[in-house]
Amino acid sequence: MKRFCFDLDGTVYRGKSGIPSAVEFIHRLQAEGNEPFFVTNNSSKTPDQLQQALTAIGIHAKRGHIYSSALSTAKYVAKNYRTAKVQVIGADGIRYALEAEGITVSEEKEVDVLVMGIDRTIDYARIADACLTVQRGAKLIGTNEDIRFPTEDGFLPGNGSFVWMVANVCGVEPLFIGKPSPVMLEMIAEEHGLTRDELVMVGDNYDTDILCGINFGCTTIHVNTGVTSSEIVKGKPTQPTYVVEDLSKVPHL
């Protein structure tokens, strides 16, 4: 049995509105006893908040099946910078994840690591402080590299836009943990005893979702409901396993 891993923004919902074909597809999987996984680069929400966002569009997801770039980033920092001074830009999701890993967030000017997740309240002064922090020697880590994400009204700046702004000012190369890194799929496989052949990565963003699945080595399905159009995807040198208009068009796997 194939186990499906769904991106959220642009794949399952846009803003607070569910994508009907995705909701119906997920309901069908659950009716068959095939509980899906949800793999998001959104670092602003905690697992509980992501679970509530899914519930609001009629999808009842198991909390242990929700994976975010915030959780992956926190695990990476805990493994590689356990005793470091860490400064954070971001919302509840990344702060919760770091706290859960026992990482103490510092407000000092000179720190070892600056972690950047999406912060919808960020202003020029905070970006300027981040640039100075990195120039003082802090390692720049982004939860994810998404340049933009879809909403009901159009595209908005993603975390990658802000991380690259800081990186370009400072002349450094940031480290990104979320998709297209295969880390979250590796976590799913390890924690649930699954193989690459059993997993399917479904997403709307070729540069994050699809490349994540390709990097991991599993089946990939691109849906034309979000960031990257099917026309653009079909011009890529490395193709997804399937390119479909939406999840009502997925072949039997």
From TrEMBL:
Say yes or no: keyword Metal-binding present.
Answer: yes
Cofactor entry:
Mg(2+)
Tell me which InterPro entries the record gives. HAD-like_sf, HAD-SF_hydro_IIA, HAD-SF_hydro_IIA_hyp1, HAD_sf
Q: Which GO terms describe its cellular component?
A: cytoplasm
Q: Which residues bind Mg(2+)?
A: D7, D9, D204
Q: How is the cofactor bound?
A: Divalent metal ions. Mg(2+) is the most effective.
Report residues binding substrate: K179
Catalytic center residues: D7 (nucleophile), D9 (proton donor)
Similarity comment: family membership: Belongs to the HAD-like hydrolase superfamily. NagD family.
What name does UniProt use for this protein?
A: HAD family hydrolase
Q: What is the lineage of its organism?
A: Bacteria, Bacillati, Bacillota, Bacilli, Bacillales
